[in-house]
Amino acid sequence: MPTPTTPGKIFLADQRGRTETPDFRRFATFSFGDFQHEHKQPLGQLLAVNEEWLASSYTLELPVPEAVHIVLLPITGTVEALFNAEVLPTAVGQVHVLTLPAGSTLRLRNPYPSNVINLLHLWLRADEPVLTAESVVFSFEDIANRLTPLLPTTAGLPFTLSLGRFAGRQEATHALAAGQLFFGFVLAGAFEVEGRLLHEKDGLGLWDAPASLEIEALSDNALLLVLTQ
Q1: How many whole angstroms separate alpha carbon 165 and alpha carbon 220?
Q2: Rg (CA), the chain
Q3: Does the residue 202 lie in any domain?
Q4: Same domain, 22 and 135
């Protein structure tokens, strides 16, 4: 494994903050809600990366203290986002971006009467003012052995999101513009990214990164989510 030369930080899966009740379980990569840690502060505009488990028919209420873009990525099942009078479902194979104003409340509901669901929700700071909630759903299909962009450039969002599922020893590169921050999150398997070994549910933040990052899957069906901002 080459020696890392790009400044960065690994956020280990087993060091995520855990919050649990009979109705939900959360693993927080960064400080979020009741979990606060001096070494797990935001990475640029990325405020939160949370893996959430919701019990059947449960609705989780999340206050929104500042204007944010919230990315919903179901891992199992469908999650319903409730805002004002709208019910906004997101299924596996989709990504949903909500832009919410400061002082609002996001509700995430498990619509199943007898099944637990698992999802990721990422929070990124949005430019003020956000006066009304906006909602966009995107679908993704071919993610085999390549990082597939999930959000079209026409969405006008201040970040990009890509997802790839790789066979063992498959390699990929990811282009970055000058000054962009990189965040990778391993959904399954193991990867080497710019000389750093990452296991399942590990995160990696890189800054001052080269224009092209080298990525290699170290296991079959390895799944990597990449966000740049």
Answers
A1: 9
A2: 17
A3: yes
A4: yes
